[in-house]
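Re: that chain you flagged

S.,

Sorry for the slow reply, it's been a week of failed gels. I finally had a moment to sit down with the sequence you sent. For the record, here it is as I used it:
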Amino acid sequence: MELLNTLKLTKRRHGANNNRLDFPEHYGGIMGMTRARFSGKIGLSNLTRDSPNVWEWLQTLPVPIPWNSIQINKNLVCPPHKDKNNIGESYILSFGDYTGGELVIEGVAHDTRTGLLFNGYEKEHWNNPIVGTKYSVIFFTCKYSKENINRKYDCHSNVSTLPCENDRLVGT
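Prediction finished late last night. Pasting the structure tokens below so you have them in one place:
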């Protein structure tokens, strides 16, 4: 958890800059592949480039699915929803000193401290209230970059969009 505490997560708020108006204010960010909000370019997120030590550690975790993106949330208690930008299954793993915060999938509560595989695109899910500090790390395949599944990128590369001829692959 110490490594996750080093991340500069963005405060996500209600309002004009947040298209998920039903989500509460929380801290979060994405690592790995993402699509830029305004330009639409697909590439490594700024958080990935700014936190290479966290990115490298996350790539060592035993994740049972192919993935190219990771959503990291701190103390998010989300309302019922389905993920709209995922393909296939997601894998969630939680860290911290907390109670509660179970992931509820179609009415069944799950503790995610040891990891959980689920399809958030097809199944409605939400979180129970949290007491303490909880980091949720969700591995998934971003629908905007499905051709890059199973590819892990070197965040030290200064590539602005991927894939391209100059990207440096690691772990393949």
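What I noticed first: Helices lie at 2-5, 46-50, 52-58.

Talk soon,
D.
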